[in-house]
Amino acid sequence: MAQLSDLGVLGLAVMGANLARNAARKGFGVAVYNRNAARTDDLVGHFGHEGRFTPSKDLHAFAQSLARPRAVVLMVQAGKPVDDVIDELLPHLEPDDIVIDGGNSLFTDSTRRTRELGKKGILFIGTGVSGGEEGARRGPSIMPGGSPEAWPHVKAIFQSIAAKVEDGTPCCDWVGEEGAGHYVKMVHNGIEYGDMQLICEAYDLLHRGLNLNADELHSVFADWNKGELDSYLIEISSHIFASKDEDGQPLVDKILDTAGQKGTGKWTVIDSLDMGQPVTLIGESVFSRCLSALKDERVKASSVLKGPEAKTFTGDKAAFIEDVRRALYCSKIISYAQGYMLLRAAAKENGWNLNMGGIALMWRGGCIIRSRFLGKIKDAFVTNPELSNLLLDSFFSGVLNQYQDAWRKTMQRAIEMGIPTPAFGTALAFFDGYRAGRLPANLLQAQRDYFGAHTYERTDKPRGEFFHTNWTGHGGRVSSSTYNV
Question: Using only C-alpha atoms, what is the Rg of the chain?
């Protein structure tokens, strides 16, 4: 009788195939199935030598080839296709078997699936998997959540195939109940949007503002990657600037400036609004992609709407490059601080016990936002597990206090040159707003009470007491109900 497999992978496109290869190379038996049997044959035919694969032509044979409790990873398109595959798979499963969704699913879908499958005796894990094709094959960041009872059965496999940090710690641990795993992945992707937009704004400032060519940009980014900004995205940006087209010209200069997106950044922004959390930088990053898509309109507008006259930079180029680097680092701190604000709010709202430092550790390797910087976030939460905001940690507040002059000079120069820096700008605005002991919302509340009798609190009265003024002398004494986001 054939030896039963430790893990099943259903769906053998790029991510599924590479995840299966990863597990097989780590010594696990892997059952593989794809609706298009040619993909199954292709995987086993080309990579069967890497480990023990058990291919199947139908779901019944696939399920029978797995050791109990079965653990099946679904690597299919998010949304309805996941539900459809689960429905097809269920007749072949038994109580305590484990269904694992490894796609980019919306966290509310994972919460629903955990509950629905639980009623049928099936355990569910919704796990974020970050790192792309290379990560899936060599070691991704894995963020599992769902049915806690499932974790002991798959922990060894997940942590074996995950990326490792310097001391060998795996970039994978249990995140929390129901949709927690996919929620953390969603916030990861939102932060990824922010990191990418910030890097693009730094590039624009140096390219258009200083007229640096691609080779010079490669040198700058390669140098940045040796210091505080050491990260995967800075590293690949330096590689992109060095890449040439067939004619020897920089390839980056020939790529159309219209950005795509798959929705996870938008999900993050929508949920931040539901949670009442000012995740402004990710929001601007999403809107910047939307603005880039208006290519034809922008080309027309460029001949109608005038900005500052283009001038040759006459200052200290090295000093300006350093100012941009510091502005990028400060803005990056704000992006992560906002992301962690959202994670904390979601944990409270959903009753999840999220390990904030552990999440930073999971992001240290394998994933798209992996960077040296994340080690500082882990340290902050190790020092103070109840830390309410990263900006209050001594390391991060120290950097912001030291670098903010360069940040402000960068913004001033961007405005003078007419170069848009929406993510840099909203990061600085959030910093100034968060550190303000008093904001002009007192006038806003007065306006709301004036036109809608929405009431206000007073500085000379205890919090929680609400007041209404008959501003015109013609209004009534009845106030509206209050609502706070």
Answer: 26
Helix (H) or strand (E) holding 283: helix 280-292
What is the distance in angstroms between the CA of the first residue and the CA of the last residue of the chain?
61
CB 121 within 8 A of CB 95: yes
Question: Contact 363/374 with Cβ under 8 angstroms?
Answer: yes
Question: Residue 177 pairs with which residues in a beta bridge?
Answer: 146
Pair type for strands 123-130 and 141-146: antiparallel
If phi > 0 it is left, if psi is from -120 to 50 it is alpha, else beta; for residue 113 that is: alpha
Phi, psi of 141 (to 5 degrees): -85, 130
Residue 144: closest CA among 71, 67, 52: 71
CB 314 within 8 A of CB 383: no
| 8 A C-beta contact, residue 104 and residue 189 | yes
- Tokens describing residue 434: 């968060």
- Backbone phi, psi, residue 179, to 5°: -90, 15
Active-site annotation, residues: 185, 192
173 Ramachandran zone, left/alpha/beta (phi>0; psi -120 to 50): beta
Q: Summarize pLDDT for 305-340 with one digit per residue, the tens.
A: 999 987 888 889 999 999 999 999 999 999 999 999
Asked whether the beta carbons of 268 and 190 are under 8 A apart, the reply is yes
Provide the whole-model pTM.
Answer: 0.92
Query: 124 pairs with which residues across the strands?
Result: 99
| 376-417 pLDDT per residue, tens | 999 999 999 999 999 999 999 999 999 999 999 999 999 999
User: In this structure, which long-range contacts are made by residues 56-65, counting pairs with CB atoms below 8 Å and at least 24 apart in sequence?
Assistant: 56/31, 56/32, 58/33, 59/33, 59/88, 59/89, 59/92, 60/92, 62/8, 62/10, 62/31, 62/33, 62/92, 63/8, 63/89, 63/92, 63/93, 64/92, 65/2, 65/4, 65/5, 65/8, 65/31
Alpha-carbon distance of 270 to 422, in angstroms, equals: 19
CB 107 within 8 A of CB 180: yes
